[in-house]
UniProtKB/TrEMBL annotation:
Keyword field contains Protease: no
Protein name: Glycogen operon protein GlgX homolog
UniProt region (Disordered), positions on chain: 477-499
PANTHER family: GLYCOGEN DEBRANCHING ENZYME
Alphabetically ordered keywords of this record: Glycosidase, Hydrolase, Transit peptide
Ranges where the Glycosyl hydrolase family 13 catalytic domain occurs: 168-578
Source organism superkingdom: Bacteria
Biased composition (Low complexity): 479-494
Organism: Pararhodospirillum oryzae
GO biological process terms on file: glycogen catabolic process
Record has Transit peptide as a keyword: yes
One Gene Ontology MF term: amylo-alpha-1,6-glucosidase activity
Residue stretches in coiled coil: none
Family membership noted in the UniProt record: Belongs to the glycosyl hydrolase 13 family.
Amino acid sequence: MIEGTDRIDYYPTHELGGYRARAGRPIPFGATLVPGGVNFSIYSTHATACTLVLFEKRASEPMAEIPIPSAFRMGNTWSIMVFGLEYEEIEYGYRFEGPWDPEAGQRFDPRVIVCDPYAKVIGGRDTWMGDPEWDRPYPHRSRLAFEDFDWEDDKPLEIPTEDLVIYETHVRSFTRHPSSGVKAPGTFAGLREKIPYLLDLGINCVELMPIFEFDEWENSRRNPETGETLVNYWGYSTLGFFAPKAGFAATGKYGMQVDEVKALVKDLHRHGIEVMLDVVFNHTAEGDHRGPTISFRGIDNKTYYMLTPEGWYYNFSGTGNTLNCNHPVVRGMVIDCLRYWASEYHIDGFRFDLAAILGRDQNGAPLANPPLIESLAHDPILARCKLVAEAWDAGGLYQVGSFPNYGRWAEWNGKYRDDLRKFLVGAEGGVGALAQRLQGSPDLYWYRGASASVNFVTCHDGFTLCDLVSYNGKHNESNGENNNDGANDNNSWNCGAEGPTNNEEVNALRSRQMRNALALLLFSQGVPMLLAGDEVARSQGGNNNAYCHDSEISWFDWTLVDANAGLLAFTKRLIAFRKAHPVLRRSHHFVHRDDAQVGLPDISFHGTQAWRPEWAGWSKALGVMLCGAYAPGGADDDVYLATNTYWEGLWFDLPRPRAGRRWHVVANTGMAAPEDAFDLGQEPLLEDQDRVLLGPRSVLILVAR
């Protein structure tokens, strides 16, 4: 090549719409910078014509419309290189011509400009709750991203799955409250300012609720009673799978959301914290036949969505449509998307919303060997990413313990949540189920190992931990749906009063119940997940479906850090204890034998009498001892947990640890703070090594050294 010249294979061959152009390269899909221009490529099987539409940023009318010549079509891909563009100042979209035949699944409309499914940046909602400009002809606009971020030596952390402590949070909620004290509340940058808090808490993985571009104005409405604007707050309604949410970025109005997300990930990694994304590939923001045409519907409706024989949308997502994920083209898009986030954003893992849908065929029937799930499990780029399934969907398919896993997939363990809650409220028959959950659910994951189980008591969807012990029923009136939305099977208990109360006994019991839940969660084999704010008793006022609230109902109130410092300190100490003791973080299930001949089996169960567990339905007491000789590495302390959900205290005879070791108190929820838990290495010696009185509705954890 002669110095100062362009590559000779990128010279224009055509003049189209006032621009120099040539046939594009069909791969990769999307808009890609090439020397002197931009390569645009998009797929559609059934379109008869495709026009590239170019805008100056934020302009109402296009600056050019360039029909892509049929000679530029390769197979079912339309591609074109356009030269001389001010690529930092443009937005683009497409018009597709083709049949309008809804009964046959075709919904082409060349009057509508559609967004590129592979757009790396989407404009139009650049600031949170900005003017939606309802009459704008092309509201969600494809833009180019510029991959010039300096990652230095950063890469995904690859923390072993069994060592994770996951913290689920919503980017905006975490710092939007006025008490957060950050410079850019409600943004990726704001979350970055709170890394010291996350480090102090002890978690090593943040799971971010959806950060792919979505429209907060979707289905927005006024609460008829309060006048509050209700919005699409959670973001489980994706507009663009490759584009980060501009409204979550302090720099979104400048189009710098890509760099802001990367800076957050890089800083979290620098502090040893992984990043997992909650991804929604089961449906899109286009809804059913009444919804808007934004992208997929206008590009190739029959390919991208599951359709009935009459051309209507199957709705296994509960939101109007269902992506046809196991169609080869859609499957390829999902894989390309996750590869992009893993490689360009250094994301450590993905949690898949309503993942059971990913295993359905084009007619909705569950597949025995789902191609997408298998492909993700064996993909070479995603080989070390965590893959976590929410193993159910809104169509009634429940696969907890049976999700196709290919040796790679973990699951949100919904049975863990349900069984822990039932045990905490003293339901009959809870001891046997609790024993399974504390072991990492071998009844569900016997061939996969304990790390396949992501354990949680609460998550974004449902009550917070504080509300779980404060309300018998949901209180979703502020959602404007007459309290008909949200789950009814909460397995909650208000401890004697519905909602806030000045009754000291009720509040003390609630505090103890929250500590009980946290103690059991952090003792359990598997991967614990905390909902942001549970460590400081954040409440949503009994709302168990706060999907529509950009208000204090959803926001993390940072004054609670001081107000509930005792609960926060308890949580920190239990997390630190878990991280210090590998016997709590096994990847394989227990065998209930003393194979190492150290005098104790790897795990043993007890009742109020040592070595005599009480499995009867009426029992509400359980003791569990873990032998540290069977920890990974084989050199840990013995650990014992006793739990009592009776309304009276119980004496527990203690099993003896290995020779030369004595029991010390790690935590006792029956005691008031700060005697409810102790710092590592400061655990006091238990005076009576033979028996202990455990108070009503309490959990005790001991360590022998």
